[in-house]
Transcriptional regulator AfsR (Streptomyces enissocaesilis), 1022 residues
Amino acid sequence: MDGVPRVPEQRAPASGPQPGEGTRHENQHENQDRPPQQGRPRSRHQDRPPQQFPQHPPQRDAVRFSVLGPVRAWRGGEPLSTGSPQQRALLAALLLRDGRTATASELIDGIWGEEPPSQALAAVRTYASRLRKALDPEVLVSESGGYAIRAGAGTLDLAVAQELAADAEKCRASGDRCQARTLINKALGLWDGEPLASVPGPYAETQRARLEEWRLQLTETRLDLDLEVGCHAEAISELTALTAAHPLRERLRELLMLALYRSGRQAEALAVYADTRRLLADELGVDPRPELSHLQQRILAADADLARPVEPPPSAAPAVVHPAQLPATVPDFTGRLSFVRELGDRLAAAESSVMAVSAVAGIGGVGKTTLAVHVAHAARPHFPDGQLYVDLQGAGSRAAEPETVLGAFLRALGTPDTAIPDTLDERAALYRSTLDGRRVLVLLDNARDASQIRPLLPGTTGSAALVTSRARMVDLAGAHLIDLDVMSPEEALQLFTKIVGEERVASEREAALDVVGACGFLPLAIRIAAARLAARRTWTVSVLAAKLADERRRLDELQAGDLAVKATFELGYGQLEPQQARAFRLLGLADGPDISLAAAAAVLDQPLQDTEDLLESLVDASLLESAAPGRYRYHDLVRLYARACAERDEQRPAERERALSRLLDFYLATAAAVYALERPGDRLVDHLEPAHHPGLRFTDRHAAVDWLYVEADCLLACVRQSATGDTLRRAVDLLWAAKDLAESGANSHQYETTAVALRDAARAVGDTRAEGRARTTLTTALLVSGRFDAADEEARLATIHARAAGDPVPVAWASNDRGIIALYQNRHADGERYLQDAIDNFRACGSRPGEASALCNLSRIHVAMDRTSSAVELAQQGIDIYDELGLTLRLANGRFALGIALTQAGRPAEALDQLGEALLVFQDNRQRLWEGTTHFRIAQAHLVARRPAQAAQHAEQALALHCIGGDWMRGNVLTTLGRALDQLGQAGRARACWREALSIYEQTGAAEADEVRDLLTPLAAA
C-alpha cells in the first residue's frame, strides 16, 4: 500500500537495553500520565480503548490492541495487563507482523539486539506465557518454534489506520476530497502520542521511526487536502508549527507558502521561500527543490489558478431521450446533478430488484416535474417496454380519479376497451398483471396524496414509479422520498443565462445575481423573470432587478403569460383549513430566516403540541419547510405571499401587531433567562422592560448558550423588526440581554448594524432612555471591532442620555467600556479613572459581576503601567467574585486578565495555566473572538518562556480565529508572530509580518507603529 509502512521481515539492527532489564522493570507501572502541554487540553485518548470503525466491528469480547501510542490491550472496555517493557516489546513485534509467525531468535534480536541476556530464550517464553494468560490462548498461539498473534479484522489500531488511509486514497482518486480528508483525520485520530511509546529494543526503534514518518506523511496529505477544499486559513497554524519542528521538510514549506498565498498573505509566502532557500544553503549546501521554486514563480506572477482551491470535475449530465408518453424535457435543464444521480441510481436498480418507487416533494414552482421528466428520459434504457405519464392534478380542486387513469394506462399498454373492467380494484389488478414481466417506468406527476397513487403503482420486479407531489408521501410504504429544495445560486444563474443569453448576463453579472436572488432561486420564478427579460430587448438586467427589488410588488412582477408564481402558491393556500391558513399568514410576518417551534407557539398564542401539528401540516402541504427538528422556514417568495395573505385576509389587522409583539416578548424573556443563568448576581435583568410571555427556562448552562446562538439570526431580526413604537424599548433591552452575540465573531457585524438601527430609531422619536441603552450596546460592538474613537464617543453619549433618564446601569457599563478603550489607546491615567468610576457605580447598583469585570480591566491598566503586583492582586479579586457567584464564562475573563498579569510578572508557567483554563471555557461557550484573543496571549506567554515554536502556532490560531479589537489587535498578533518566527530563524517571514503590522498601525494611527519600526530597522540596515 503506497505511503503506508509495512513491518519488514528482516531483523532489526542490533542495539538497545542491557541484559537483565526484563526483570528489573517487571512491576513498573506502564501508563504514567504525561503532564499536558501548557495552554492545551489533555489527550482525548488517555486510558481509553482505540476507536472502533464500522467496516470491521470487532466481536463483543474480542481483544483489541494499540501500537500508535503506548502498547496496550483491551477486552471490551477493560484494559488488560501487558507487563514489563520487554514483554510489551514482544507483544509489539508480534502485532506488527500481521499475523505471521515470529521465531524465538527473531524476537530475541528484536528485543535485545546483538547482546541478549544469557537467559533470553527463557525470558521470551516467560513473556509469551504471561501474555497468553492475559490475552487468550487463541489470540497468542505457538507454532513452528515461534509465536503469532491471531486477532480479527479491526482489532489493531494500525491496521484500522492503514485501511482508512487506503480508503482515503480511493476517495481522493475519485474526486471526493472531503471524504478523503475525513478518513485521514480519523486515521490520524488513532495516534495517542509517540508510537510504541517506551517500548525498548532495536525492532521497536525502527518501527517507531517508520510510524512517525508515516504519521507525518498522512499529516501532509491531509493538509494538502485542506488546501484543495479551501481550508487554507485554518491550515496555517498547524503548518507553522510543523515547519518549525521539521525545518528541512520542503513539502511542508510548499504547503505553507500556498496556504499563506491563498489567505492573501503573499509577502509572507515569498518570505517562507527566502527563509527556506537560506536554510537549505546553510545546512545542506543545496537549492530548494524545483517544485518549491516553481511555486515561488507562480506566486510572483500572481497566478490566478494558484489562488483557487481544486474543485471536483463536473459530472456529465445524462443524455436526453424521448420515450412515448413522457412530456418533452426542457432544453435548458440546469443543475440538480445530485438528485439526477440519486433518482437515476434508484430507477436503474429496478432491473434486478422489486419495484422501485421514488416520490419527489416540494413547493409549487421548485421544479419537481422538470426534474422527474428529465430523470425519466435519462432512465429510458432501463425501461425498454415503455414509459407511462399522467398529470394527476393533485394541487387543483378536481384531482384525477385513479380508475380513469388506469383505463388510460391499460389502453396505452395495448388492452382493448372491451377488456377493461369497470371497478377500480379490477382495473388495478389487470394493470399489474399486464405489467408482469415488463420493464416499464410510470411517471405520476402532481399527485394529491398517497391514496390517489397506490392503485397506479406497478407491482412487479423490473418496473418503477416516479411520483411528484406538493405533499410528502410519508405514508407510502417502501417509497424513496426526496425533498426538492430551490436551486443553488450558481445553478440559478446558469438557468437565467440559458434563457436570457450569455451576452446580456455577462455584462451585468451582479444585477443578474440580484434577479435570481429576488426570485428566491425558485426555478419557476427564474423562468418567468428570464422570459420577461428575453421578450423585452430594450430592458437591461438592471431594469428587471430594480423591478424585483420592491418586495410588495415582487409577486406581481413574477408573471408572464399563463405562468405566475402567485397563482402557483394560491392553489396550495386555497386547500388549507382555517387554523392552518391563520398559522400560515401569521408566521410569515416574522423576519427571521426560520422559526423555532417554541417561538411559533408564541406568535400563534397556541400550546406547543397544537402548534407543532399545524406546522407539520403546512410542511406536508409544501407551504413550509422543516429546516431541522423543531425549526421551520418559508421560501422567500412563499413568505411574501403569506404576508400578502395576512394583509388581505386577517380580519383584525391589530392581530398582526400582537403576533409580532408576542414573539418579541418570547425572545426578551428567554434571553433574560439566559443572561441570568450566565451571570448570577448581575442586576441588569432587574432593569429590563417587562415581557408578557414567560419564555423558556433553562437549568443547564450549555442548553442556554446553545439556544442563544441557534436563535441569534432570528433574535436579531426580531429586534430590527421591533425598532418602532411601543416595542422599541423592549427591542433595545433584548439586544442588551443578548450582548454575548457581539463578542462571538459569527454574529458581531449583525449585532452592530442592529445596534445602529436601534440608536437611530430611539433618537428619531426622542426616547432618551432607549437611546442611552442602544448606545451602550453599540459601544460594545464598536469596541469588539477595534474602532475605539467611535466606541468612546458612543459610550460618552450613552452616559449623558442614561443620566438624563435616571438610568444608572448603562452609566456603570459605559465607564467600564471607556476604561477598556483608554487601555487600548495607551491613555492609562484616563483608563484608571474611568474604571474606578465603574467600580463605584457597579457597587452602587449592587452588580457584583460588573464590579469584577471592572477590577479585571483595571488589572490590565496596571499591567500597562508596570504595576505588576497590584495587577495580579486586582485580577485575583475579580476572580474571587466570579468564583463566589459561580460565573463560568465570566470567570474565564478573570483568568484571562490574571494570565496577562502573570506573563508581565515573568511567571509564564502560571500564566499559561490561567490562559489555558480560559481558552477551554471560551471554546465551550463559542466565544470565537475571545478564543482568538486568548491564543494571542498564550503566544506572548510562550515567548516569555522562550518557546518560539509554540508561540508561533498560537499566534497563527489567533489570526485564523480573529480577536477582540479588530485590525489593531491583528497588528499586535502579527508583531508577536514576527518575534516568534525571528527566534526560529525565519527572518524573511518575520519581516513580512512586521511590515503588515506596521501598515495596520499607520492606517489606524496606533502608537505601536514605533515599536515595529524599531524591529524592522536593524533588518533593513542588515
User: Anything to note?
Assistant: The two ends are 50 Å apart (CA to CA).
